[in-house]
Amino acid sequence: MIGKKVIDTDPITTTEVKEMLESLAEDHELTYEQNLALDHVIKFSKLKTEDAKKLVEELEETLKKTQAIKIADIMPEDLADLRLLFAKERGSYKTEDLEKILEIVNKYR
Q1: Collapsing DSSP states into helix, strand and coil, what is residue 21?
Q2: What is the spatial distance between Cα 59 and Cα 36, in angstroms, rounded to a whole number?
Q3: What domains are there in the chain, each with its CATH number?
Q4: Is 56 exposed, middle or buried (0-12, 13-18, 19+ CB in 10 A)?
Q5: pLDDT of residue 55
Q6: Burial code of 57-95, b = ≥16 C-beta within 10 A, e = fewer?
Q7: Which residue has the higher pLDDT, 94 or 1?
Q8: C-alpha distance from residue 37 to each of 30, 34, 85 (Å)
């Protein structure tokens, strides 16, 4: 890929990806990969964009942005699901912290 350079990366939620792809589809014909990505985010996005942004903001008070976005995308239902998301992360989280995270997530269901 000559001439292409990544300037900045910023993780976003699946609902934001859905919004971007739908706006792109209005103006241009999507490629095969973009159509696959759009189908995927339509099937698996669980929140509205505004709610997802609010949820990520609330979770960012206790977590990293990437972790908050992952939680907003998956919307774990119990402690076991939440522990699976943090399985590869460094450090450990107390049960009280995980329960607080689940309370925040449950407000947006």
Answers
A1: helix
A2: 29
A3: 49-107 (1.10.150.80)
A4: buried
A5: 96
A6: ebbeeebeeebbbbbbbbebeeeeebeebbeeeeeebee
A7: 94
A8: 10, 5, 22
Q: Is 89 helix (H, G, I), strand (E, B) or coil?
A: coil
Residue with tokens 């699901």: 81
DSSP 105: H
Are 55 and 105 within 8 A, CB to CB? yes
Closest to 79 measured CA to CA, from 99, 60, 106, 104: 99
Q: Name which of 61, 56, 101 is nearest 93 in CA terms.
A: 101
Q: Which residue has the higher pLDDT, 68 or 9?
A: 68
Residue 38 neighbours by CB under 8 Å, 6+ apart: 18, 21, 22, 25, 30
Looking from the CA of 92 toward its CB, the CA atoms found within 13 Å total 2
